[in-house]
From TrEMBL:
GO terms for molecular function: DNA binding; DNA-binding transcription factor activity. Residues 6-103 form the HTH arsR-type domain. Keywords: DNA-binding, Transcription, Transcription regulation. Pfam families: HTH_20. The keyword Transcription applies. This is Helix-turn-helix domain protein. NCBIfam families: HTH_metalloreg (NF033788).
Amino acid sequence: MKNTTHPDISLEVAASTFAALGSEQRLSVLRCLVRAGNQGLSIGELGKRTGVTGSTLTHHMKILAQAGLVTQEKQGRSIICAAVAYDAVRDLSAFLLRECCADEVHNCKDHDHG
């Protein structure tokens, strides 16, 4: 049964996005931004909360931004970082679960896929 709630993403896009999340520090940064909500955090505050600072944080933010998971916007003298990953994470989940139990003889009734 095809999931019509979320757009189909390609294997290439899914692999690229999963690769961006393949670092504990990047995952920590993304989770922190998700917790902050739509208002986001300044780059300085994000560094304080995650313990990732300087060029390392810049590097991780670049990778997350290229994957379409976060944004960075200059506001005055600050750079505000925000998660925009909500749909992307849902799409990744749908990608993984799209063919759940497809090779089983019985239907996939025991799993709740939302």
